[in-house]
Amino acid sequence: MIQWQAIKPKPDVHIRKAALEKFLRRMPDRLDIRLKLAEQHLYLGETEAAFDLLEASLPETQNDPDWLAVFGKTLRALGRNELAQEYLLRAWKRGVTEAGLDLAKLLGGRDQCDDAISICYSLLDRDSTNFAAAQMLCRNLIASGQWEKLEQWTSACLQNGQWNAVLPSALAYTARGDEHNGLIRELVEVDQYPVCIQNFTGSATHDKLCETLLNHKARSNFPTIYAGKGSGQRIDRISDIGIDPVTEIFERIKIEVGNFGQLLADNVAPPAVSNIPENATIESWGNICVDDGHEDWHCHPAGWLSGVYYLDVPELSDKPDLAGQIEFGPLMLDTDNTLDTWPKKRIRPEADMLLLFPSYFGHRTYPTGSNYPRISIAFDIVPNSNG
């Protein structure tokens, strides 16, 4: 049985931003505060505000490695790629790990795949579980046609027991022969996952809770670092902000996660899923999507098991078949992720539906095209080895 552990309380994005602004007014020479505030602006998509804040820094601070990294990231967000590359490279050479990932993304987008690959290998040498670096490595190896190196990397990960959430998708792209195909089939189990539970709480509508979430002060536009795009809002750490009905929903979710664990214990499952954590926390967030709001292909690398509970969905009978659906499959490591080795699976969400799936499953959502909000609560079950 999983021992559930609480997450340390953390103020929402708006409170953090307001506090940093207050501190900076009192201590305008504090570069660390200026950088944290700039990163908060970037998180919220307020790129021009981040640029103005960093540009106003004193000249002597502009050789600071952390400043170089954040300023380079800001320039990249503004599309000023040549200048961004200069600053990110300077930060990377000064040992700022985070700058390496932004630099690799920039180089890959500018058809400098070999340079991006070199940086990704360096990042993975430091931390083999670095999902973002692994994803960038695979994308650039595929983009440059270096399939042999991709197969070498996946084989090395398997031989060394270096699990990474991008590995199943990379294997699906490189699968050759029955042995590899069998391994992929074990990992993806498209007939078994996701687990779909309808009428989860026994009530199709939760009008009061929907109204609470639609008007909650913790709402923010989709942060730039996540997969959400278009017209939508996010509520971070939704299980920890004191909404009683949400707390009750998560108590039910814990029961279903326990049932899922029992299902695994009774059946043969791949190690990536069957290694049920003894101690875990729940990372959660709310999504409110309308019209063109959707999520691009992504997975949840920190989790063991992930899920989404649909609180309310619009009526879409007059919309195209794909409208509002959630689709599962491999990550988008190439221009197309249609693979025989990992067949895609689509589900049309319904109100009061819960979906559970391995966290390494790639997935995306389609826009509803409706002004009526699709309200969902998403979560990751994150193993805690320090329990």
Précis, in short:
With 387 residues, this protein is an alpha+beta fold. It folds into 2 domains: 3-110, Tetratricopeptide repeat domain (Serine Threonine Protein Phosphatase 5, Tetratricopeptide repeat, Alpha Horseshoe); 195-383, Sandwich (Jelly Rolls).
Mean pLDDT: 90
Number of spatially distinct domains: 2
Order of helices and strands: EHHHHHHHHHHHEHEEEHHEEEEEEEE
The biggest sheet, with number of strands, parallel, antiparallel or mixed sense and barrel status, is:
8 strands, mixed
Low-confidence stretches: none
Classify the fold: give the CATH topology of the largest domain: Jelly Rolls
* Cα Rg: 22 Å
Rough outline: globular
Fraction of residues in helices? 40-55%
Q: Specify the number of helices.
A: 14
CATH architecture group name of the largest domain: Sandwich
Q: What structural class results from the helix and strand content?
A: alpha+beta
* Euclidean distance between termini CA atoms: 13 Å
Report what the structure shows:
The chain is α+β, with helices and mostly antiparallel strands. It has 14 helices and 13 strands. It folds into two domains: 3-110, Serine Threonine Protein Phosphatase 5, Tetratricopeptide repeat (Alpha Horseshoe); 195-383, q2cbj1_9rhob like domain (Jelly Rolls, Sandwich). Strands 1, 2, 3, 5, 6, 8, 11 and 13 form an eight-stranded mixed beta sheet that branches. It has a three-stranded antiparallel beta sheet with strand order 10-9-12, with no helix packed on it. A two-stranded antiparallel ribbon has the order 4-7. The longest helix is centred in the middle third of the chain and has 23 residues, at 244-266. The chain has helices at residues 13-26, 31-43, 47-55, 65-77, 81-93, 97-109, 113-126, 131-143, 147-160, 167-174, 177-188, 207-214, 244-266, 271-274, and strands spanning 3-4, 195-197, 220-221, 228-229, 232-236, 279-289, 294-295, 305-312, 326-329, 345-347, 353-358, 362-365, 374-383. 44% of the residues lie in helices and 16% in strands.
